[in-house]
Write a structure and sequence with these properties.
Layout: E1 4-9, E2 14-20, E3 22-27, E4 30-34, E5 41-54, E6 57-71, E7 74-79, E8 82-84, H1 90-105, H2 114-131
Parallel strand pairs: 1-7
Antiparallel strand pairs: 1-2, 3-4, 3-5, 5-6, 6-7, 6-8
Helix pairs in contact: 1-2
């Protein structure tokens, strides 16, 4: 049976390169699955869990947005940040989320940092949710 080659790359380093039966990716419009033979495409990614399935075994990663390219049975994940869910520090993510929420309370939506703080809340919430998939 054909396999996908899945690569997760951040600006700092290659996180992994593996073979898998399926990848489930947090796309800009929601989760989508990719299996061998999938039509080529390019998509934005939102912060969320990336699931790799191989032989019934699942591995979970958190990606903090970026792009994914699917072509010729290869899934190339170009992530702003990526990490295995087993390495997520939930308390640190919760603290970052709460700090961003506190800063948002004192801002108007016209403030230049408003979108940045909202993105931090979304990213850290997604990181904490991904950590539950261990």
């Amino acid at each position: 049976m054909a396999k996908l080659t899945v690569e997760i790359v951040t600006p700092e380093k290659r996180i992994l390169s593996v073979q898998a039966d399926e990848a489930i990716v947090p796309g800009g419009k929601g989760l989508f699955g990719v299996r061998p033979g999938h039509t080529p495409f390019l998509s934005l990614m939102e912060p969320g869990p990336l699931t790799l399935i191989d032989g019934g075994r699942r591995e979970y990663y958190f990606v903090a947005g970026g792009f994914v390219e699917v072509s010729n049975d290869k899934v190339l994940v170009l992530a702003d940040v990526a990490e295995s869910v087993t390495g997520i520090d939930v308390e640190a993510a919760k603290r970052r989320m709460q700090e961003a929420q506190e800063r948002l309370r004192g801002m108007s939506s016209d403030d230049v940092r408003f979108d940045i703080e909202q993105a931090t809340v979304r990213r850290e919430t997604a990181r904490m949710n991904a950590a539950t998939m261990r």
